[in-house]
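pinging the channel bc i need a second pair of eyes. not urgent but kinda urgent?? the chain im working w is below, pasted from the shared doc
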Amino acid sequence: MKDVKFKGLCAKLILELKSKGISDNKVLDAISKIPRHLLFEPVFRDKFAYQDIAFPIGANQTISQPYTVAFQSELLMVNRASKILEIGTGSGYQTAVLCQLGAKVFSIERHKSLFQSAKLFLNQNNYRAQLFFGDGFLGKKVFAPFDGIIVTCGAPFIPKELKTQLKIGGRLVIPVGEGDVQQMTLIQRLNDSDYKETIYGEFKFVPMLKNINN
């Protein structure tokens, strides 16, 4: 990040994330390098871009709160060259963090306008994710299996298609629950048929919906 002002604001955000319990230095370093302000209209950048809040981005969606992005990224345990599927590209912020961590990222977005704007942001900032316009409930079987799958919207249930697209040893991080609040859930694939499920508390996401929206 080249802009000194925004670099300073981002540094304050990193300190705030540390104070809230984020401890993975790889994740913190990745977030510190993402120009989040470029995802905001200029009038909102100074005040909101590096606040630890979600913010509307159109299509009734939000750019995720940085703490949530950091928390999910920690749970995913991304290594360099990890093959990651993201459900819900949204603004492209989480996508950029995954790319910065060195992952090979495949990301699905069901809103055409967000798909197009995220693709532009990622390309302009040299984040080489593969983006797809489609229904995230189905995953991306043609590229499976994945080391990790991250869902950035609140799922009413855990789609079987996502679980079966994990590698053995792979991790699925997904907020589960209908209504305004979801339980952050980690699914670890133990073998061909067995999975381990761990709950990590309450978060708020926009709902995960089927089908595409032009």
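so The helical segments are 4-19, 25-32, 42-48, 66-76, 93-100, 112-124, 160-164. and The chain is about 30% helix and 25% strand. — does that match what u expected or am i reading it wrong
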